[in-house]
Write a structure and sequence with these properties.
Length: about 400
């Protein structure tokens, strides 16, 4: 008998082939399809796991980052043995353990305006599993230029969202929904805002599901935005989207306005580089404003000082310095006069996680001090991260 699939594939994929509307034709469509996943992190890992298990013909993995310990809480294809390895390579190893015959393109270079078209053109569907605005706009513009659907996911804290861009005759692109990017200072990362690992799993799995539906013809083609909240009731809600905007500079009637993708500075378009808060917190400043962690340690060992931790309550509960007082930054900024030491001999030092919010708190209190005041108000350079690095290696870093 001349079987259209290898004999072992009937057993491997039989549970989905017996589904009404899927069948052998659906499996053959998956086998002949190719997808590329940009970002092998919290979203990319679950998406890749299910795409690799479904029988996709070729999978591309694009990620230039390396596996870190903090990734393992949610990036389920990586493990302790692949720490320090490229995420694309680590994900490839994991997928080959699932199916050794998978055809995988492992791409460890960063996606740029100069290489996006060439890297993404060989694939039928593009998955955006990234976490920064410049790459999202780049992927959307590239998907429009190549005429390919873009399955985009996002997750932060307890929430996530899913949308398919540039899909069908009238599906909008990312620029249609978000013509202006947010300011870099307002775009938090998982490191700053936190993320529940299972949330990325839900969104990543949904990205894989939508991709499979597109390839097999099971998708209804209607543009919508799916919003997920782990703490919401119900947790899912779907928002119907309008068709693409005729005025969109990427996919509208005047799409020539956007110019060549390779000539666009997406970082500049999004307001510049995302701030490196750790580096900013390490800026020394003047000695009358800031104090290093080591000098601060020597000071509190010999003197009684007022130490105020301005982190959120949850973070203060994770770890804090002995004898420190917790006062959230918002409270200090709202009424800095309330936190001016009553005695000129009282020295106040503000601390936070990285040394940024503590500067804001110190500046707020100093702004309401009387002229020529002898009250000392400073903050700790680099915050508690510097304390763990330079003073106490047993202090938790999160």
């Amino acid at each position: 008998m001349n079987n259209p699939l290898p004999l072992e594939d009937y057993r491997r994929y039989g549970r989905q082939m017996i589904l009404d509307g899927f069948g052998l034709p659906g499996q053959l469509k998956l086998r002949s399809a190719s997808v590329v996943v940009v970002g092998a992190g919290g979203l990319g890992c679950p998406a890749l796991q299910y795409l690799g298990s479904s029988g996709i013909g070729k999978i591309g993995i694009i990620d230039h980052d390396k596996v870190e310990l903090s990734n393992l809480q949610r990036q389920i294809l990586h493990n302790e043995e692949t720490l320090g390895l490229s995420k694309a390579e680590s994900a490839t190893i994991a997928l080959r353990r699932i199916n050794s015959s998978l055809a995988i393109d492992t791409i460890t270079e960063a996606l740029t305006p100069q290489n996006a078209l060439s890297l993404l053109s060989p694939y039928d569907v593009i998955l955006d599993c990234t976490d920064n605005a410049p790459t999202r706009y780049l992927l959307s513009d590239t998907a429009v230029a190549l005429g390919k659907p873009l399955v985009s996911g996002a997750a932060q804290k307890f929430e996530g969202q899913l949308c398919i861009y540039n899909f069908g005759e009238t599906g909008p692109c990312y620029r249609c929904l978000f013509p202006k990017p947010p300011a870099p200072e307002n775009v938090g990362t998982c490191e700053e805002t936190g993320i529940l690992g299972a949330v990325t799993g839900i969104i990543g799995n949904l990205q894989a599901l939508e991709t499979i539906k597109i390839i097999t013809g099971l998708h209804d083609g209607k543009p919508s935005l799916l919003i997920f909240s782990a703490l919401g009731s119900p947790p899912f809600r779907s928002i119907k989207l309008r068709s693409r905007k005729t005025t969109c500079p990427a996919c509208g009637d005047e799409k020539q306005r956007i110019g060549e993708i390779k000539d666009i500075d997406y970082v500049q378009f999004c307001g510049g580089q995302t701030p490196d808060w750790q580096k900013r917190g390490l800026v020394e400043g003047s000695t009358d404003q800031r104090i290093s962690a080591t000098v601060f340690k020597a000071l509190i060992d010999r003197e009684q000082v007022n130490v105020i931790d301005v982190r959120p309550k949850t973070e203060f509960g994770i770890c804090h310095l002995p004898n420190s007082t917790h006062i959230p930054l918002n409270d200090i900024v709202a009424n800095p006069s309330a936190y001016v030491p009553s005695s000129p001999g009282t020295h106040t030092y503000f601390v936070c996680r990285l040394g940024n919010d503590s500067q804001i708190a110190a500046d707020a209190v100093k702004s309401v001090l009387p002229d020529k005041s002898e009250i000392i108000v400073k903050d700790v350079i680099g915050g508690l991260r510097a304390w763990a690095k330079d003073v106490d290696p047993t202090f938790p870093v999160y």
